[in-house]
Amino acid sequence: MLKEKWDELADVKEELAERDWFMGTSGNLAIKVSNHPLQFLVTASGKDKRKRTRDDFLLVDEFGRPVEENHLKPSAETLLHVEIYRRTNAGCSLHVHTIDNNVISEVYGDNGEVTFQGQELIKAFDIWEEDAVLKIPIIRNYAHIPTLADTFAEHVTGDSGAVLIRNHGITVWGRTSFEAKKILEASEFLFRYQLRLLEHKPYQLFKVV
Ligand SMILES: CSCCC(=O)C(=O)COP(=O)(O)O
Ligand SMILES: [Zn+2]
Predict the structure, then answer these.
(1) Cofactor note from UniProt (predicted)?
(2) What is the C-alpha to C-alpha distance for residues 50 and 20, in angstroms, rounded to an integer?
(3) Is 167 a pocket residue for ligand 1 (Cβ < 6 Å)?
(4) Does the Cβ of 176 fall within 6 Å of ligand 1?
């Protein structure tokens, strides 16, 4: 099981690396290994996530502490992943910093959320109604990680979802790694679309949906 989950997360990491979503060692990924006790694999802190090595991940418990003595440190943002696995049935959580998610988070940061409507890719969030509205929350980037995790946790209300951290990045989660990746890719598509749209229709910024 552990080996299977390790390989699954390593494959996701490789795919996100191909998209160049781990600039400057940023980003962290996690995958649940067991429910009782709650244990998940998380990326080791400060690594170049474009490389595939035997030190890429370590197993942590429900508090984000390494399960075994280890020379590796869990991601500095492990507590955000902890909140996801404690509160939901998610199986995988992904955090990346991109230019698009940072710019979107700054443009709409004062609103506390960014809203999308009338875009086909909203369906990737399992929202199928014709005029459905997708809201992605934007939270403040607290340097104190327990405070960041507490603020983040307020928005972790379902087994899949996405939260932007202002001028920092996005964290998404899903029941499976496939679902988490789908939500991440769809979010980044929507962010790029919205930013491109603003170049052509700047007044869209003030449109209330
Ligand atoms: C160098 S990026 C700053 C830390 C961060 O936001 C991040 O995503 C990576 O931290 P980690 O400890 O998971 O490597
Ligand atoms: Zn980060």
Answers:
(1) Binds 1 zinc ion per subunit.
(2) 8
(3) no
(4) no
Residue closest to 10 by CA, chosen among 47, 71, 45, 57: 57
Q: Is the CB of 56 under 6 A from ligand 1?
A: no
User: In a 3-state reduction of DSSP, which class is residue 48?
Assistant: coil
**In 3D, which of 89, 172, 99 has the Cα closest to residue 134?**
172
Q: Ligand 1: which residue has its CA nearest to atom 8?
A: 27
**Ligand number nearest to the C-alpha of 29:** 1
Residue with tokens 């290994």: 33
Q: Is the CB of 141 under 6 A from ligand 1?
A: no
Quick check: pTM over 0.90?
yes
CA dist 63 to 39, 67, 82, Å?
9, 10, 7
Tokens in use for 189?
A: 């598509």
pLDDT tens column, 90-119: 999 999 999 999 999 999 999 999 999 999
How many C-beta atoms surround the C-beta of residue 206 within 10 A?
6
What are the binding residues? Answer: 95, 97
Report how far residue 115's alpha carbon sits from residue 87's, in angstroms, rounded to the nearest whole number. 24
Question: What's the first-to-final CA gap in the chain, in angstroms?
Answer: 45
Q: What is the DSSP string of 17-28?
A: HHTT--GGG--E
Q: In this prediction, does ipTM exceed 0.90?
A: yes
Residue 57's pLDDT band, with cuts at 50, 70 and 90, is very high
The length of the chain, given as a count of residues: 209
